[in-house]
Automatic annotation (TrEMBL):
Residue ranges of every copy of the G-protein coupled receptors family 1 profile domain listed in the record: 41-290
Location within or outside the cell: Membrane
Gene assigned in the entry: LOC113917153
Main location: membrane
Name the UniProt record assigns to this protein: Olfactory receptor 7A17-like
Coiled coil: none
Biological classification of the source: Eukaryota, Metazoa, Chordata, Craniata, Vertebrata
Originating organism: Zalophus californianus
CDD domains noted in UniProt: 7tmA_OR7-like (cd15234)
Length: 310
């Protein structure tokens, strides 16, 4: 057994979503299209918000920030996957794997916090409309984004440094299309108790706490909307939250499901497929979800591109 251990391992093998050769061109084409749509769609949202002074409000500032993070989040995994398929190689270096873990956790957690901040923004707008501009001033908005980033970086740094202490066998095969933390830790041949405890603590802190904050915000929103007498007023209030709720449901259900089920290695392939939802599909859908239900975004996009958004 000792001969199989290697603390100085230089590379891992990413098995991807499928090892069938005939499926590789299909997977490559599909993920290339999804990635290009994600980048283009989110760039358009950022361009729309930055170019239209009417969109210089807290809600659109957070939306533009979310679009930026979504681009970075997807870019930590998909380009490497496409490169491996194109070169017919499954190799990722040890340093490359740790780097991928580090940035993946940063942007994943940052995405998480931004969704929570956006829920708080809707809570203030609907429950305290007269004080909205005072409470959600530019300084607080910037501080919320900055604090979210700092917490994400510190958590990622701690999780990544803990992976450095693990030992791996000379040949490590990861049944995934990228170096996801729970998959890499699961391949270690040394004791992973501290890593597991730290990972689940991170899930509670960066997953459970923000989700609780979102649920609390929307419980207050529902209570406030119920007191609105007109049906049109209720519809307008709920319509401003529908897009955000759709994204929250997609992101949290899939991401928390993947990490909470990480103790069951026999469903690792299912985890890889589920990971596609929150790493690729959700960032791609965000621009469509937010723009299709938003007149201001559609108007600005029409002015920029010359194309009417349905």
């Amino acid at each position: 057994m000792e001969a199989d251990n290697d603390t100085g391992i230089s590379e891992f093998l990413l098995l991807g979503l499928s090892e069938e050769p005939e499926l590789q061109p299909i997977i490559f084409g599909l993920f290339l299209c999804l990635y290009l749509i994600t980048v283009l769609g989110n760039l358009l949202i950022i361009l729309a918000v930055s170019s239209d002074s009417h969109l210089h409000t807290p809600m659109y500032f957070f939306l533009a920030s979310l679009s930026f993070v979504d681009i970075c989040f997807t870019s930590t995994t998909v380009p490497k996957m496409l490169w491996n398929i194109q070169t017919q190689s499954q190799v990722i270096t040890y340093a490359g794997c740790l780097t991928q873990i580090y940035f993946f956790i940063i942007f994943g957690a940052w995405d998480d916090f931004l969704l929570t901040v956006m829920a708080y923004d809707r809570f203030v707008a609907i429950c305290h409309p007269l004080h909205y501009t005072v409470i959600m001033n530019s300084r607080l908005c910037g501080l919320l984004v900055l604090v979210s980033w700092v917490i994400s970086v510190l958590n990622s740094l701690l999780q990544s440094l803990k992976v450095l202490r693990l030992s791996f066998r000379t040949k490590v095969e990861i049944p995934h299309f990228f170096c996801e933390l729970n998959q890499v830790v699961g391949q270690a041949c040394s004791d992973t108790f501290l890593n597991d405890m730290l990972m689940y603590f991170g899930i509670v802190l960066l997953g459970g706490a923000p989700l609780a904050g979102i649920l609390y915000s929307y419980s207050k929103i529902v209570f406030s909307v119920r007191r609105i007498s007109s049906a049109q007023g209720k519809y307008k209030a709920f319509s401003t939250c529908a897009s955000h709720l759709s994204v929250v449901s997609l992101f949290f259900c899939t991401s928390l499901g993947v990490y909470l089920s990480s103790a069951a290695p026999q469903i690792s392939h299912s985890n890889a497929v589920a990971s596609v939802m929150y790493t690729v599909v959700t960032p791609m859908l965000n621009p469509f979800i937010y723009s299709l239900r938003n007149r201001d975004i559609k108007r600005t996009l029409k002015r920029i591109t010359g194309v009417t958004v349905i």
